[in-house]
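Ticket #4471: structure output looks truncated?

Reporter: J.K.
Steps to reproduce: submitted the chain below (693 residues) through the standard prediction queue, then opened the result file.
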Amino acid sequence: MPRIVVSGVPTTASRHIAVLDGMRALAIIGVIGYHTRPSLLPGGFLGVTLFFVVSGFLLTRSMVNLFERLRFSYPHFLRGRVRRLWPSVLATIAGTAILVYCMAPSLLPKVRGDALPSALFYSNWSFIFRKLSYFQAAGLPSPLTHLWFTSLIMQFYVLWPLLFVLIFQLCRSRAARAAVIGALALASSLEMLLLYTPGQDTSRIYYGLDTRAAELLVGAALAVLMHRHAGRQDDEFAHDPPHWQFFSRTVHVRGRELRVTGQQLVNALGFALLVVFCVCFAVVDPQSAWLYRGGYLLFALLAAAMIWAGMHSGVFMRAMGAKVCSYIGSRSFSLYLVHYPLLIVLNPATRATPLPWWGYLGQFALILAVGEVFFQLIEAMRGTPCLPWLTRAAEPARGPAGARLGRRLAASGNTAVRALGTAGTRFATLTARLRPGGVVGIVAGALAVLVLMLPLNWQAIAHARAVQLRPELALTAEQARKQLATQTPQPQQSPKSGRSDSAQSKGADTAQPQVSALKVPNNLDPSRWQCDAAAQQCSVRMLMIGDSVTAGVAQTLQQHFPQAHIDGAVSRQFATGEDLLAQFLGSGEGPQVIVFALGTNGAATREQAEHVVQLAADRPLYFVTALAPVDWTAALNTTFQEVAAAHPNVGIIDWSALATAHPEYLYDDGTHPNELGTQAYEQQLYNALCPHD
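Returned output as attached by the reporter:
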């Protein structure tokens, strides 16, 4: 029987299941759209749910047929799944390592950390234990993050047959088997609900096999319910239609008689579900609490209903099996594997402005081209046609030459040679149906993992390569200051801002030295501290609270602001900064200026910003605008400006605008300033506190 592959899952179905082509195409478009730009398709991550349901359906459908024919072999079953997944995954690891070293070397340490877990199919649990969020990955996410999906799928392949054989033996009817599987799916969803805590990281429940199994099990239950007996064709309902297909009613609409049939209703259901998923791709928020309170299970049930509707002949089946859907669906697994590393490299975090629409189309075209090459060289088995609607070529009759050589070596009298021959025979058997590129992918991936595991200074290797691409990363502090001195000064203030009110009260005109910022607090009085413009030394008693950006520039700032108290910490949230500000001000020490520089690790509300102003009382307060490759910084910076406009003693230091205009100030994560950026950050802060020409 010909074999059909869905997301790397083979099945022994005797006919092509057309509706699955459209579902896989829809799923991969959603996933690629989400990863290209989350705001483009915020709900595109639901494509993974479609993949899960389809995979669970095909896997269970295949097992039921094999069980009924008494042809199921667990080792043979696993060997087939490994043959489908391992070459592609290993080739992805090898290709990503090379791509990253050449184009984005700052990501190389992350590739090294995720290579072995991805190759051995436990990366989802690795992300859980390391608390790496899928939805909050910003700056420098690992290019292998997407392989959590293949890890979870492989874990399901290993465990589900063992559990399903018990269900199959103990439950004799389809209804009983489906009921047990449904109960397991419900238990998985209930666990997700119980583990979910609003406001907390969702990595544990998003990546976990136990909490995501519901989506796979929904597909499995559908396969059991739709199964009749071994050997039936996939279009069996066209030859032996169920009773509802004989439904027919005449409906009167505005004086006209319309005939409504069961087939029309099923087709309408299929198209309605298709529209629902398209709309949800565009509007669903990945942080929504209802997703973890039954939402994923709901979408899995809708996907199963779409499969059911498409399994019956009609216009919906034909639409979902159109040639364009068949093509994209057949390449969906290859597209999934190659798209994420390509997008990470093509869309660096230091890019200041979004791509135009044609830029995104160009990236999608590149992904399609690379995915096609990957499919033909790595994923496709021997005999796979170039296009999915063509006739499959005949399988080669003779065994692989590697197996024959291995058998000769295994017959040797030497123990070492015999062991080598046995291993070679098993490897040749495993790779017998692979194309040569698949074998090369296995070898290249294994070598890449071994090399990445070597105890080398990978940070130094990555930095050396990054300096070749971006020489500014090698600048010392002195060199950075000299380079800044030669640059054309960038405007650091709006036409509304510039001078402090103290200068105005003394009758100073606009030509006199003044502080500059996007907005200057009206009660900022630089005469209260000493400023040395030549050395850029300032004696102001400043309290600065920030996150990892502040921590990175703290040493330099302390040199130029020796009386300042600078407190920066990695991953600090806005609310934590509020608490720290209250503690410091409650200790009795009164800063002359407060600088609040938080926002790269999470959004803040207007109420939180107002609370900071309330804590500062009448002291001069600066908010520093946040810059990070995440969606919330733009809204947060707008909030800062609105609060500053409402309070005269609140000013704005616009680091976001300065760094956006100078991406060379940032490391590759698009958030943290390098040495050149550190000096620019210090100069901007000095200019906001000390008069200058």
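Triage note (M.O.): checked the attachment and the full token line is present. DSSP finds 28 helices and eleven strands in the chain.
Status: closed, working as intended.
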